[in-house]
């Protein structure tokens, strides 16, 4: 609906509650950081979005197996941000990592694999 201010406020409140009640490396914290990163991105605040997505990735790397689909999601989100910032080589590496994880953890016809392939092709077309 485009009300990013309220969305951001709600996600920050949820994050604060999780930070006060959950261990430092908990999946809900990663999800909260991911959601905050998405809102920042919608507000065209790519620097803060990147920080939030990197925090989500850090948590996920500490608690999930190396080929977990949530890691692919984080790599994809960070890749999208680098693409928006014009850092296409970094974006390509991150999207390729997302695809690699997806191919090991998801069915081959899964929509996320198609998304990762699509993102890779978009970046290659710009390089």
From TrEMBL:
What the entry lists under Pfam families is as follows: TPR_10, TPR_12
* Cross-referenced SUPFAM superfamilies: TPR-like (SSF48452)
**Which SMART domains does its entry note?**
TPR (SM00028)
This protein's source sits in the domain of life called: Eukaryota
UniProt TPR repeat ranges:
30-63, 72-105
Listed transmembrane segments:
none
Key words of the record: Repeat, TPR repeat
Name of protein: Uncharacterized protein
Q: Which organism is it from?
A: Rotaria sordida
